[in-house]
Amino acid sequence: MKHLVSALQFLTILPLGKPRDLNALKIIPYFPVVGLVIGLLLVLGDYVFSMLWPDTVVVFLDILLLAILSGGLHLDGLGDTADGFLSHRSPEQVLTIMRDSRIGVMGLLAIVFILAIKWAGIYSLEKHRALYLFIIPAYSRGAMMFGIKFLRYGRLQGGIGTDFFSDKTPMHVLSIFLLPVCISLWLGLRAIWLNSFFILMTTLILFYYRRRMNGITGDMLGAMAEIEEAGLFLFACLGVNQ
């Protein structure tokens, strides 16, 4: 339980007492579980909001709640990654840009676009809305486990994400990802398409990271989580009016 609490303290702003010593390798398996906790709070928030406001406002508040629960951690990584990658510089220069705490135009646009995609996706959800709100945060946070497993750490001089790459994550650790996958089976046949799309998106992101930077950083992990989350919400509403 102490590693689950540490994972929650690392990935959320939930008040869980005094911060524990972070054992980065031990909390990695709990990323999807943290996502389910966030998803559960999102479902509850969506329910409460829907009793007070129209759906356009409810979805905005859902996205706001998502950002607040994670402390903007992944959005910050998305902004830094966009500033670096879209500068069209060498990998070394990209890493330098990503270290800059100031946000540029590309980072701001990336954040705005991702939030807009989430709003459009959630707003268009009809059937199984609560289930999607519950499991998609688990998929997006679980995706970071695959980035840590299959890519090396991109900063040779070290950084805040170094501890997560100090040893290779065993393959059996990734089995915890089966938890949101099993829950997704309530979607019926759409579960197959959702999981297939997740595999495709994760593979493409990791391939791009490897080709562009030959590695991954903490910022890039955060960007990956945000892109996965937005992409899955958009995919979830695919064909809802057909």
What's this, in brief?
67% of the residues lie in helices and 0% in strands. The protein has 11 helices and no strands. The N and C termini lie far apart (45 Å).
Order of helices and strands: HHHHHHHHHHH
So how many helices?
11
Biggest sheet architecture = none
Low-confidence region ranges? none
Q: Mean pLDDT across all residues, rounded? A: 92
Shape: globular
| Beta content | under 5%
Helix percentage: 55-70%
Task: Give the number of domains.
Answer: 1
**Helix vs. strand class:** mainly alpha
The number of distinct β-strands equals: 0
Radius of gyration: 17 Å
Distance between the termini: 45 Å
Question: How would you describe this structure in keywords?
Answer:
mainly alpha, 67% helix
Explain what you see.
There is one protein chain. The protein has 242 residues and is mainly alpha-helical. It has one domain. The protein is built from eleven helices and no strands. It has helices at residues 2-11, 24-27, 31-50, 55-69, 73-85, 91-99, 105-124, 129-150, 178-184, 190-213, 218-236. Helix 7 (105-124) runs parallel beside helix 11, helix 8 runs antiparallel to helix 11 and helix 10 (190-213) runs antiparallel to helix 11 (218-236).
Topology:
Blueprint lengths: L1 H10 L12 H4 L3 H20 L4 H15 L3 H13 L5 H9 L5 H20 L4 H22 L27 H7 L5 H24 L4 H19 L6
Helix pairs in contact: 3-4, 3-8, 4-7, 5-6, 5-7, 5-11, 7-11, 8-9, 8-11, 10-11
